[in-house]
Amino acid sequence: MAEEADLLSIGKHCSLASCKRLDFLPFQCSHCKEIFCLEHRSPEEHKCSNFSLSDVHVPVCPICNQIVKKSLNEDVNQQVERHILSGCKSLVVGKPKKSNKCSLKTCRQHGLMPFVCQECNKNHCIRHRHAEDHFCTALRVPMVSCA
């Protein structure tokens, strides 16, 4: 009988009043901090009072088709209106700059992560990451004349 009591203390009951299922791998809601079963773990499923859906609407200017920066304090329509009144110049989200460009002049690759040569300290793509592959200037040995 003592073993049976120990097994019941392992799991937790779902906090939803209509469920109360004993779950051995319960989930804690990050919004209300209550414990829920797999079926009711999402804030929508247990109708979490502390959860509010974030606005996932990305405002796009109807004139220039550029993405307009959003502000948490201001309405999306007001943001787009300010953008249009500026002549479609302000509040524009710029394109992300490509980083980790290969330093080899004939290569146009941009890597996800940098490969910096330990010899010349230049960044290269995965294909040219080895000193021999990018004709590293540090490997070139000056010719010594034998006289």
UniProtKB/TrEMBL annotation:
Tell me the Gene3D superfamilies matching this sequence. Answer: AN1-like Zinc finger (4.10.1110.10)
Q: Name one GO molecular function term.
A: zinc ion binding
Query: Which UniProt keywords are given for this protein, alphabetically ordered?
Result: Metal-binding, Repeat, Zinc, Zinc-finger
Every copy of the AN1-type domain together lies at 8-56, 96-144
The record's annotation in Pfam families points to:
zf-AN1, zf-C2H2_ZFAND2
Report the superkingdom from the record: Eukaryota
Gene Ontology cellular-component terms for this entry are: cytoplasm
The UniProt entry, under PANTHER family, shows:
AN1-TYPE ZINC FINGER PROTEIN 1, ARSENITE INDUCUBLE RNA ASSOCIATED PROTEIN AIP-1-RELATED
Q: What is this protein called?
A: AN1-type domain-containing protein
